[in-house]
Write a structure and sequence with these properties.
single chain, alpha+beta, Nucleotidyltransferase, domain 5, 2 domains, 5-stranded mixed β-sheet, 17 helices, about 20% strand, FGGY-family carbohydrate kinase
Amino acid sequence: MYVLGVDIGTSSSKGVLVGPDGTVRRSAAREHTVDRPGPGRFEMDGRHWWREFAELARELARDVTVGAVGVSGMGPCVLLADAGDEPVRPAILYGVDTRATAQIDRLERELGKDEIRRRGGSDLSSQAAGAKIAWIADEEPGRYARARRLYMPSSWLVRRLTGAYVLDHHSASQCTPLYDVGGLGWHRPWADAVAPGIELPPLRWPGEQAGTVTREAARETGLPAGIPVTTGTIDAWAEALSVGAHGAGDLMLMYGTTMFLVHTTAEHLTWPGLWGTVGAVPGTYNLAGGMATSGAITTWLRDLSGAGYEELLAEAGESGAGANGLLMLPYFAGERTPVMDPRARGVIAGLTLSHTRGDLYRAALEATGFAVRHNIETIRAAGGDVRRAVAVGGGTRGALWTQIVSDITGLPQEVRVTSIGASYGSALLAAGLVGEGGADAWNPVRHVVTPRPEASAAYDELYRLYLRLYPSTASLAHELADRQHR
């Protein structure tokens, strides 16, 4: 029996058809663009998510029998819909959208910054879905007055597929300050104050069944009516599940447009500059981190230079550790953890006329590695115990990026046979609904990236400079950011 997994990502929607042995039989994608209506604002028309899902389902499930469907998506996003499930405005995307700074300041004053972290697991930041809801209420009261329900990409697909209005616990735990991590449920006093009039969805775990495909959804997608659909979750957590990185001590590193880290713990930990969330599996918790840009910088350099990725990677490999004296801050869209500064900006230090595009590309990859190390050291300071790292995502297909990250962090990284990412994790969750699957059986380790001692020693010195670069340039970056917002 086949299962279908679909993920709604930042730059594309991806789907996989997976056989009972875990082999990907078919895959497909639909590229899309993100709307940027102003500085620090990232939006998408949520209606595209369902259209792309239906197209992918029809393409992938042709001539085969699908037994279950799994879904995931970028997040936390805020898609508010009216009583008829029509979006009242485009969805506001996750932490890359930094518009809600005034709402964050106000909520911290009203609710107490320490109390928000204690109850919700995280400080308010651009990642917090609750602050984005408050922005809509403050800035677009006419639209907000029509809003009745809250969706994210995964729950929007579930609604269209099954008619069920549900959200998974993990996604809810990123709706700070609406969710109580200790109590595993919505915190009604704050939810009513921050999101008045919104009927918050009932909560389930990502691998639980949300419902079954309706006849109407079957007509639109070509899927059989009556097959089960998972509740689903946010993409990074589906990716962690796809490679089995959901046990205490595990660290998932997701290489993509943005870089994401998920460390699993057996107890609820909190720390300024990290997201403390509920895990994707009952009984687990996470300390998570994320960069606002990583692969996005390499795409920017590719577009500027006109060269292809393979050419740039080859030139970056020739550049060598340290990029011939270049050091980059990868804060090209502000930064999320552990800096939590939406007004941070990218910096390239040490440029001379002798530097090449290969040096710049190498510096971008190294900047990601330094940011990953910064997050890992913060996780450890919070009480996390990182014992095993697993790499996933498109960036694992080339050896250079993962090698640089291992050299900088000193951590070996497992790379599994299948690194497709969240869509594969969603398929694995779907397989669980019909009694099949399991990450270790489906997706064994292909190889391990090990740190190189000589390179690690060189990067230790550069990392100390990296930590000094942000505080040395932050005030100037903030002034420039303010000018960009005028």
